[in-house]
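Dear colleague,

As promised, here are the two records you asked about, laid out in our usual form so they can be pasted straight into your sheet.

NAME FIELD: protein one
SEQUENCE, THEN STRUCTURE:
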Amino acid sequence: MYRVTEYAGPAPVVNTEVVEARRPFEVHDESRAGPPPGGEILSGSVQNRQFFWDLTTGGAVQFGLMRSPGIETHDVSLGILRDAARRGRVRELGRLSLLGRSCTRFSYFQFRPAPLSPPTRREHVDPCVTDDGILLREDWMAVGKLARVREAVEVDTAPRFDDSRFFIGRTPEAGAAASAFASQQAVQEGKAPNGTVLRSRLPAGFTVDRRATVAGSGSGGGRPHTAYVESYLHDSEAAILEQGSVSGTDPPWLTDQGQKVPAGRFGQGRLLMFVDEVELRAWNPAEGPAGRVEFVRIDAPSADLAVYLLRTLSPHRP
């Protein structure tokens, strides 16, 4: 349970956020009016392995839809933040004790959708994360002023959840809102393309979790494209491999973000680090202006795993 204080207006506004998670897929997140424990539910979301629901005022379901294989709502990752600090993408600021728990403080420029980058004096986000990946406090500085503080007031690391809390066994109903969002990303569960696909040699303990063909409209800054997506699971860790091709000269994302890395069978590779995952993008540039760009994108809980999955790719029949 978090106390969330916004300082953007003439007076501070305090609300409550309650996050219930059963890693790696299941999350129930509610924003409640007023200070902890909060009152009326203002908004929220629920996700499980296959589906995502948006909650509106009072906690009612506004819409639900099938989502792409992988993780929709991520935890913060202490390992990735430390790796990013070693690479100069964030600053590590030392340890604190909050609610009787020790956490490590970091500072970086801004939150998603941009990848991690060094903070500036006037713009930065400063999280404090425990060794088991729980965010205890997060300060947002904007234009040189404190804009938002999210601080834990209650933590339970051994909760008892009923499956219904994460809508397990529930299927989304059709509706206008669901159709609008589904048009931005249509998921065909279990469908694989004809011909061959690229697959990685999975590390010990990892197994294939889901397979799907996903058609994206390009909302959020990307280009429209269709991709084949597989997710891999080991305990509470998940990795995702997306692959496909798109017409033109560039892949369906910006080509100058992140750090250049060797890309194996691909001509170009970029490693991007976020607060919750590493994203490795690789592609073969098109031959000529009317060609097609082959691409893969790997989301993983560490840079080492992402690089390994890219390096061990080989063709297979679906």
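NAME FIELD: protein two
SEQUENCE, THEN STRUCTURE:
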Amino acid sequence: MPPFIVFMLGAVVGAVASVFAPELRRNARPLLKEAIKAGILFTRDAQVNAVELFESLEDIYAEAKAEADHAGSADAAAARAAPRTRTAAARGNAVRKAAAKPAKRAAKRAVKRGGKQTAKGNATEAA
């Protein structure tokens, strides 16, 4: 657009605005006030909806946690009620550990007395 046309268009808009300025002032204030009031009401509604959403999410979380705790306690009760059986390998490991304890104790006592070689010898003799 040529600059002259833009200048003329601006001048016409300015003239029309100056003619209608008093009327615009009278009508603009109530319109602006209504727009601000609508924004405030919209914000309040949004806050209420957000609070309700978070409360419902907290309720859902609490229900899920309660169900998980209940299921976990039921699993724990079932595990306690189930008979404990050891496999042959587990029994063998337990026997070896029990047999090695006195040798380890003797080795520790010997180390405390001051003889590291004696502790090694006691441990090999006991095994």
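A couple of things worth noting about protein two: The two ends are 105 Å apart (CA to CA). The chain has two domains: 1-84, 87-127.

Best,
R.
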